[in-house]
Specification:
Blueprint (H helix, E strand, L loop, with lengths): L2 H23 L8 E4 L6 E4 L21 E10 L4 E8 L5 E8 L6 E2 L3 E4 L5 E2 L2 E3 L7 E9 L4 E3 L3 E4 L12 E8 L6 E8 L5 E8 L6 E2 L3 E3 L5 E8 L7 E10 L2 E4 L3 E4 L10 E8 L6 E8 L5 E8 L10 E2 L3 E3 L6 E7 L7 E10 L2 E4 L3 E4 L2
């Protein structure tokens, strides 16, 4: 082999080895990656977030609004002149109304009245009582639903009336009541239901406009003809945002809607570092004092304490810290304090309040006092 070529290969290999060693000892390009090796095994976990930072919040892609999905049930409760028919509808995110077409042949040209069922993405029962039918007659029917996107027609089913007396009953009644327990991201929705003698299902719709778009879980009340108060807790709301809601009730005779009401969640819109103020001391004696402050945790769990010294906080230098205390997340300012002992008599002291949550650490202004 040519001598110059051999020397070039050796030099190249040496550069690669030295470069790898230097990179291994000083991986500057990976400064924000924290890799931890489990010495009890071979697994390695990697945290790709910079130290002491909070990962960005995850976001949920809004669900697409679509025409309703419809399913006509085969079963029906039949009498000599009525038929209790039912089906299921998924509103698919838009305010949806439903009705039944029916008739003595497959052209089914007659229609029941429209009923509003909601706007969520959960399948909802859709019952109706078809009346004024002829006895001992075959009828065809299908469920139809409509929202702002389109109309969907269910499967055609059939039933035959008989000589059984009419099934008696009536729709429930519903009343939307003022929302309570309103916070930055949650609320209690309230209403009243009377089943009017038939087992009844109820739920709330809510959203940022009267198209709603969200449903609570379904509740049930028995057939007692008494007015029952119901409530549903809702979370995951946006802060400082107006919401509309209403209660819906449904029994085998159909669906009724309560009046639309509204509420506004509490602020602030954005979470942030705590808001604090150092207040004047109280209970000053020869060796003790009560240090006071005011704290707004800004809706995040917050730790706070007082720092004090017999020298002013030049350059941010402090002498002593009190024990830390914790306040749960809230959006209200309250007074806080710490009793300090072991001070020297006839001595001037300086102190300030400090608080920390996941969004930052803040220090209040400096206050002074002199022991007796």
């Amino acid at each position: 082999m040519n001598k110059n070529i051999l020397i070039g290969v050796v030099v190249t290999a040496l550069v690669l080895v030295l470069g790898y060693a230097a990179f291994k000892n000083n991986p500057t390009d990976l400064a924000v990656i924290d890799t931890t090796t489990n010495t009890q095994g071979t697994s390695t976990s990697t945290n790709t977030n910079p130290p002491n930072t909070t990962p960005p919040p995850t976001t949920t892609t809004p669900r697409a609004i679509a025409a309703p999905s419809v399913e006509t049930n085969i079963q029906a409760i039949i009498s000599n002149s009525t038929a209790l028919v039912s089906g299921k509808i998924t509103p698919n995110g838009a305010q949806t109304a439903y009705w039944y077409d029916y008739g003595t042949n497959t052209s089914i040209t007659s229609h029941t009245s429209k009923q509003n069922i909601g706007s969520g993405y959960t399948p909802i029962a859709a019952p109706t009582n078809i009346i004024s039918l002829s006895p001992n007659t075959q009828y065809y029917f299908r469920l139809i639903a409509e929202n702002s996107v389109g109309i969907t027609r269910g499967e055609v089913r059939s039933f035959t009336t008989n000589n059984t007396p009419v099934v008696s009953g009536k729709l429930p009644t519903s009343q939307t009541i003022t929302a309570t327990n309103i916070t930055r991201g949650s609320v209690s929705l309230n209403g009243k239901i009377n089943s009017n003698g038939t087992a009844t299902t109820w739920w709330f719709e809510y959203g940022e406009n009267t198209a709603f778009g969200n449903l609570t879980t379904f509740g049930n009340i028995n057939s007692d003809q008494v007015t029952t108060s119901v409530t549903s807790a809702v979370s995951g709301l946006k802060p400082f945002t107006k919401y509309y809601f209403r209660i819906n009730a449904q029994n085998q005779f159909g669906t009724v809607n309560g009046a639309v009401s509204s509420f506004t969640t509490m602020g602030p819109i954005d979470l942030g570092a705590p808001i604090i103020k150092t207040n004047n001391p109280t209970n000053i004696s020869t060796s003790s004092v009560t240090m006071n402050g005011r704290l707004d945790p800004n809706d995040s769990n917050t730790t706070y304490w007082f720092e004090y010294s017999d020298e002013s906080f030049v350059g941010g230098i402090i002498g002593t810290m009190t024990a830390t205390q914790t306040m749960n997340g809230a959006d209200v300012a309250i007074g806080v304090k710490s009793d300090v002992t072991g001070l020297r008599k006839n001595t001037k002291y300086y102190y300030r309040m400090v608080a920390r949550n996941e969004f930052g650490t803040v220090a209040g202004g400096t206050v002074s006092f002199k022991t007796k």
